[in-house]
Amino acid sequence: MVNIDLRQAILLRVKDKSNSELSEIIDGSVDHDELALPGLGVLFEMIWKQSSEAEQGHLVQTLYKHLHPEK
Asked: Which pTM value belongs to this model?
């Protein structure tokens, strides 16, 4: 029996997808079943690891603005 973890399973699911297919997967997961949240977390982790410090700062600032809309 092959034993893969959740992260590996998600990466296998998306590894050969086109840009439009990846976009559909993300759009289909956002604001839907909470079961999709771990998958989005893995995808975000991939983006985070490949982002420069400036890009990471932009992501954090975007998140901060959504959490603190009054500021």
From this structure: 0.80
